[in-house]
């Protein structure tokens, strides 16, 4: 049986990691073989991106367009060397972020006055060679609530975690359905309890991908 490729996406602090962990455990309990991964990936280009996001590299920080190209290059390497092999082995691949993040984030960080819708289309085009997910679970959350969750989590803020920027990013995510009409994108209300979110995600996943037994 061919594998299934599921992406969990959304603003920082929406609870992606927690829900991926729970979904992985639930699918494994149903007999599925699951591989969990994320973007930026652990491959060389992804490692470079992470150094910029953490602020480890201060010089030559990429702007929106060069960062979009870096993310696209990381994605192609990620797909070729990790995602596709696991799918070919019949596994369910759960990915924390994919090209929806690039489209929303890089268009949102463009300078004021930029045509953000046009930038979204360009980033989507750059990512056209990337394998399409079978399902995108978009965790939607008020950026103010997400900021409070990140504060409770602790740690240093990353490059894109400013509140005003996160508000613009959320607005860009809301346009994804029109931009990617052939993708199966399901919005999940991430303001609820962890248990309720997990129950909906599991139900949507098993029904949409025919994983019911």
Instruction: Return Rg in Å.
Output: 17 Å
Q: What number of domains?
A: 1
Integer average pLDDT = 92
Under CATH, the homologous superfamily reads P-loop containing nucleotide triphosphate hydrolases
Report the principal-axis shape.
globular
**Spatial arrangement of strands, main beta sheet:** 2-3-1-4-5
Please give a quick description of this structure.
By secondary structure, the chain is of the alpha/beta class. Helix content is 53%, strand content 13%. The longest helix has 25 residues, at 64-88.
Structure overview:
- By secondary structure, the chain is an alpha/beta fold.
- It has a single domain, classed as 3-Layer(aba) Sandwich (Rossmann fold), CATH 3.40.50.
- The chain has 9 helices and 5 strands; from the N terminus they run E-H-E-H-H-E-H-H-E-H-H-H-E-H.
- A 5-stranded parallel sheet has the order 2-3-1-4-5, with helices on both faces.
- The protein is globular, with a radius of gyration of 17 Å.
- The relative contact order is 0.21.
- The mean pLDDT is 92.
Task: Please tag this protein with its features.
53% helix; 9 helices; 5 strands; alpha/beta; Rossmann fold; 213 residues
Topology overview:
Layout (H helix, E strand, L loop, with lengths): L3 E7 L5 H14 L4 E5 L5 H11 L9 H25 L3 E5 L2 H10 L7 H11 L8 E6 L2 H11 L9 H11 L2 H4 L5 E5 L4 H15 L5
Parallel strand pairs: 1-3, 1-4, 2-3, 4-5
